[in-house]
Specification:
This protein has 584 residues and is an alpha/beta fold. It has 20 helices and 19 strands.
Length: 584
Amino acid sequence: MERDTRSAVSTGAVSTVKFSEATVGRYLARRLVQIGVRDVFSVPGDFNLALLDHFVAEPEINLIVCCNELNAGHAADGYARARGVGACVVTFTVGGLSVINAIAGAYSENLPVICIAGGPNTNDYGTNRILHHTIGLPDFSQELRCFQTVTCFQAVVNDLDVAHELIDTAISTALRESKPVYISISCNLPSIPHPTFSQDPVPFLLCPKLSNPLDFEAAVEAAAEFLNKAVKPVLVAGPNLRVGKAGDAFVELADSSGYAVAIMPSAKGLVPENHPHFIGTYWGAVSTAFCAEIVESADAYLFAGPIFNDYSSVGYSLLLRREKSIIVQPDRVTIGSGSAYGCVLMKDFLSALSKKLNHDTTAFENYSRIYVPPGNPLKCEPHEPLRVNVLFQHIQKLLSRDTAIIAETGDSWFNCQKLKLPLGCGYEFQMQYGSIGWSVGATLGYAQALPKKRVISCIGDFSFQVTAQDVSTMLWCGQKNIIFLINNGGYTIEVEIHDGPYNVIKNWNYTGFVDAIHNGEGNCFTAKVSCEEELVEAISTATGEKKDCLCFIEVIVHKDDTSKELLEWGSRVAAASSRPPNPQ
């Protein structure tokens, strides 16, 4: 989803604020509203309580209290995927070091998340006092130093004279760089009036990035010459399309060129799969059927926004050649083994290139000749134990423009990747960071950002146990998500990489757990299914009489029931991880 992060220019005069309300707490709340944040995810603590009062007082902000900081951070991550920016508020150190894992995930996925922490009283800085919630040293910089590696800007607000500048710089940097930022505000400052906040903040108007005209023109000409000489070129979309806000430009290029169009796994949902030349997901040995053969046999391929890591490359086993490639990143283009062009914006480059290419449908015609439609899973016998491929056949039928899929780390990566997304259907997963349990918080945040969509989450039992508590917050917020809890008794993705007794977990009564959380408050439906007949009945209820409820369906499957893609991927990743040290 593309979003213009420049706030609209205010019309009319800037309004004056009553001096008693001219506070940094109110200012920060108003700034978040201006950039599109309507829900802030928090865990209260004594260092942030005065600040939270201002979020409660802001009529355009809904303060959502989460069960723990990790889930608050994951919720802000999910919210940013849907709305373009997210925010969370935690307390000093114990809250900050708890949320930092989620912020690291947002950093890896290039998501602008505003992470706000309540900080020490201004009078305690520079003293030898030891504060609670710290590691027992009079140095209060531990939290800050930890956040320096996973945020693109850090602001420590312990002086109201510079608070305005620090907050604005932090927020604008997050929007410009598409990365998280950290803002610490001393606990005694949020409610103190100060002249710098005596007017409503002027809405942001971020200066757009511009391409270097000479590099831009040279890159377009060189890329056009490179691709026009090819016989069967292809296009492949990568996850950094989101950072470059270049989804529409990529589709424009696909339309004009006629090339076969594939996506990398972490770009699913960024390119419409109903495009007439769409050929599927390129993921090396675990690509969708016939996609890898077309991409890897091409004599030229343009990758727009790729991330090649050990997971996306299936243990570094992609059969790609650098001299055949054009790599387009948000602000850089590299052609073949040689020429590189900096300060070239992806969006502008793809749009300009679309006007320079010869129309060439060779690769797509080759795909059409070899393509064989996938078959359906074997029909289940009456009351036969449910198989995962049958489950996802039924999930496919649920998808529409009014739904979104959240795929948890694990076999859901591979099963969800094979789903065919209708136009407008959302799709998110966290491939780069791969933090298990991410999907619970991300579902909360994504659903809160887009309340008109019904979010369908596919979560394994091991992952769910890490972050399960915030199903409670989904109920509190009145969300109508459908959660498929896939209970196979362990950590299946790790089993396929390296098995051991540590991959088996204590089984829970998952529906009983959610019923206990529900406790008669809110709208909730739970079902435990172990065969297709029970699954069909549960889905019928979830989409019928319980369509306005949060629906939790525990699906019991065999511990060895995995996708064939996971089996292949797991063995290749295991081989990459177990390479012996190079000889000294």
